[in-house]
Amino acid sequence: MMMTWGTFVFSLSTAAYGELQRQMTWRHASSERVGARAARQYVGPGDDTISLQGTIAGELVSDLQVLDKLRELGDQGKPQALVEGTGRVYGPYLLTSLSETRRELFNDGTPRLIDFQMQLERDDDGASEAIA
C-alpha cells in the first residue's frame, strides 16, 4: 500500500502514483503605509494542495474501472483522511479534480495504460467528518 484516501487504497494492484507534489501557502495581510512598504501580518495557513500523477497498467490491475471508485468518493463532497503507507497522516482532503488519459488501446477500445492526475485540497473544516 502506497497511500489511502478515505477507503481508497493506492497500490500497484489499484492505482499506483509515480509522483506526489505538495504545495502549501501561508497568508499574510498587508496594510498600506505612506512612504514605506506595506506592513504585513501573518494571519494563518493558506491552501494545502496535493497532486498525484500515475499510471494504471492493465496487466497489473484486476479492475480497469478503479478510477470510478475515486469519482464516487469525490461525488460525496466530503473530506477523506489521507494517510501514507509509512503511517504519515496528512489530514482531511477533498478531491477537487481527476483526469485520465487512456492509451495504447486494444481493438475493442480497452486501454493497456491509463494515466491519471488528481488534485486534493486540505479541508480542516471537515476534519471531524474525515476521521469518523
Mind explaining what this structure looks like?
The protein is mostly beta strands and 132 residues long. The model has no long low-confidence stretch (mean pLDDT 92). The radius of gyration is 19 Å and the shape is elongated. It is 12% helix and 61% strand.
Primary descriptors:
132 residues, 2 helices, 61% strand, 7-stranded antiparallel β-sheet, 12% helix, elongated, single chain, mainly beta
Q: Please state the CA-atom Rg, rounded to the nearest Å.
A: 19 Å
- Describe the strand arrangement of the main beta sheet, using strand numbers: 2-1-5-6-7-4-3
Number of strands: 7
Largest sheet: 7 strands, antiparallel
Q: Please indicate the percent range of residues in DSSP E strands (runs of 2 or more).
A: over 45%
Order of helices and strands: EEEEHEEEH
Structural class: mainly beta
Distance between the termini: 21 Å
Shape: elongated
How are the secondary structure elements laid out?
Elements: E1 3-5, E2 8-10, E3 16-33, E4 36-57, H1 66-76, E5 80-84, E6 89-105, E7 111-122, H2 127-131
Antiparallel strand pairs: 1-2, 1-5, 3-4, 4-7, 5-6, 6-7
